[in-house]
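OP here, attaching both records as promised.
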Amino acid sequence: MLQRTMGAISAQLGDVAFDYEPSMGGEDFALIAQMVPAFRLLVGSSQPGRSDKVHNPDYQPDERSIAFGTLALARTAVDLLS
């Protein structure tokens, strides 16, 4: 399922990175993934030139990232359900 998901996202968005630094964010995700097939999609939302991070009051996300996440999930759903 993961390879199909990565293929669907690449087909929709082109050359995207699939590597990321490990973190403890979403630590309950492993429990859910034991019950149903799952993948965790991380969508970068930092604005160019800014160094602030999520979970702080000064963070200003690049709202264009919403469209990228939506396109990635929609294409994945279509490909996995067809």
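Record two, same layout:
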Amino acid sequence: MSRSSITLRSASEQDALFLAELWAEHLRRGDREEQVADLERVIKEAAASPEQRLLVAEHDGRPAGAVLLRVATLSPTNLEPVVQCWTPTVVAHLRRHGVGRTLVEAAVAWAEDLGIPHVVTAASAGSRDANRFMARLALRPQAVLRVASTPVMRAKVEAQRPACDRSRSARGQMLAARRSLRRQQGAG
């Protein structure tokens, strides 16, 4: 059985719809048109920056996956340079054909070319296959990224305050809201 050819190329604006479909679960909520516009912006920024690459993998000439590579620091407080390998994703029916490995290999090659000692990536916590794939490539957990909506976090933070502080905080929020409303009415 012969292996099909996998090639990499820089993304173009014409790839925005493909990327919106491929990365749907990783994009901000909104309609498809907004997501495509966001990705067109990401594509333009990557094309204009020497510190970014947005690559599309093709399998037998058809888009099969993509990855966004960025030079950054390990964290805002650890300034060691890294190549970030964002959202390496493969079209579902082409998984286990070497496309994912090719995308990650591009990150490693770029890091080597730049003399950067580490490659970092993130995988969805619920994606067992993605996490196993990353582990097989020697990528180990370094941190856990947690996300919550601002209103939910506000409610949880307030719920954890002592009762006497909660009533003062609620009163302060009410006064701030009244001041804001007065400012808006005065400006209108």
